């Protein structure tokens, strides 16, 4: 796990430096709240932190990852490192009580006991109160690590008794991989660019809708660049029927903006695209348009987004946008 420690340090330098300094000075807090978006390595950091407390071949503060202690922690079978996961939709009081019971059996012999609460924001009120009592009055030296994407759902009294470490958002490549794992490979590059911690679940629920919207964008830009009179029919019969309200239309404009960004990217030889399966079409379009023409189109889409915020009629806004894109204004 030594390599993993250094990988985590590259990905989360602030968090890892703070933990390293605390370990070096023997000043670890008795409780931490690790806060970060889906895809951030909160659980991985919690495990290597636990390893750093038990590793028999420690290199400074870095656990070896190879000794028996490290391997047991990595595989979830170390007697003094326990993980609590939601039981169904929530973490229940009996799970916390079972943790306390297991720790009480070993309290006289263990140098330290570590417990990691995954998705801590899903604790029921009674479970949260039990954790709070455990934080305030442990029977032996303990290290509590609570992992969450939503600190606003954790008791303020728990937060006040813990040190909060905020994880940096995951990289674009990490977000893409996360969406691919969730079965949205075709649109994962788009979802990753659209996502934020509050919209991720909504975007996954909307994946079929986004697939259709993506197809509409590809159709629309081709008709725009060919100056086809069909474009207004596509707008009226398909685009406005799909992107119905202002929030959906804003999302549609984002999809359109990503297309022209991709067009500019392939012109510069870049391969990190929101529409990677459309690279041939993008290259053909990029050959026909100058860099300034593509930049102008992006500016027109951004201006349409600003007009949308000003509550301009959606149909008029889109007709104006398509006209200006076709005329190159």
TrEMBL record:
Coiled coil: none annotated. The keyword Chloroplast does not apply. Its EC number is 2.7.7.7. InterPro entries: DNA_pol_HolB (IPR004622), DNA_pol_III_delta_C (IPR015199), DNA_Rep/Repair_Clamp_Loader (IPR050238), P-loop_NTPase (IPR027417). Residues 251-326 form the DNA polymerase III delta subunit C-terminal domain. Keywords: DNA replication, DNA-directed DNA polymerase, Nucleotidyltransferase, Transferase. SUPFAM superfamilies: P-loop containing nucleoside triphosphate hydrolases. Transmembrane segments: none annotated. GO terms for molecular function: DNA-directed DNA polymerase activity. It holds the Pfam family DNA_pol3_delta2. It catalyses: DNA(n) + a 2'-deoxyribonucleoside 5'-triphosphate = DNA(n+1) + diphosphate. This is DNA polymerase III subunit delta'. It comes from Aliibacillus thermotolerans.
């Amino acid at each position: 796990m030594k390599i993993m420690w250094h990988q985590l340090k590259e990905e989360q330098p602030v968090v890892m430096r703070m933990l390293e300094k605390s370990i070096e000075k023997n000043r670890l807090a008795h409780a931490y709240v690790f806060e970060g978006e889906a895809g951030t390595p909160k659980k991985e950091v919690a495990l290597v932190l636990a390893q750093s407390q038990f590793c028999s071949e420690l290199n400074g503060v870095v656990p070896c990852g190879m000794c028996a202690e490290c391997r047991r922690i990595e595989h979830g079978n170390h007697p003094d490192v326990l993980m609590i996961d939601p039981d169904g939709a929530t973490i229940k009081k009996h799970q916390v009580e079972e943790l306390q019971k297991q720790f009480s059996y070993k309290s006289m012999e263990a140098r330290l006991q570590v417990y990691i609460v995954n998705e801590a924001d899903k604790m029921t009120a009674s479970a949260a109160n039990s954790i709070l009592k455990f934080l305030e009055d442990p029977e032996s030296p303990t290290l509590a690590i609570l992992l969450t994407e939503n600190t606003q759902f954790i008791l303020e009294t728990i937060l006040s008794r813990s040190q909060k470490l905020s994880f940096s958002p995951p990289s674009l490549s990490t977000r893409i991989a996360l969406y691919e794992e969730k079965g949205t490979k075709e649109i994962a590059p788009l979802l990753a660019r659209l996502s934020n911690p509050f919209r991720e679940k909504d975007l996954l629920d909307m994946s079929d809708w986004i697939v259709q919207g993506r197809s509409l964008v590809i159709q629309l830009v081709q008709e725009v660049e060919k100056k086809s009179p069909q474009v207004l029919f596509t707008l009226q019969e398909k685009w406005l029927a799909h992107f119905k309200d202002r929030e959906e239309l804003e999302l549609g404009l984002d999809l359109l903006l990503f297309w022209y960004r991709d067009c500019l990217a392939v012109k510069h030889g870049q391969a990190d695209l929101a529409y990677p399966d459309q690279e041939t079409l993008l290259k053909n379009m990029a050959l026909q348009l100058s860099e300034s023409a593509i930049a102008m189109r992006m500016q027109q889409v951004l201006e349409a987004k600003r007009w949308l915020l000003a509550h301009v009629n959606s149909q008029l806004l889109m007709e104006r946008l398509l006209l200006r894109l076709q005329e190159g204004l």
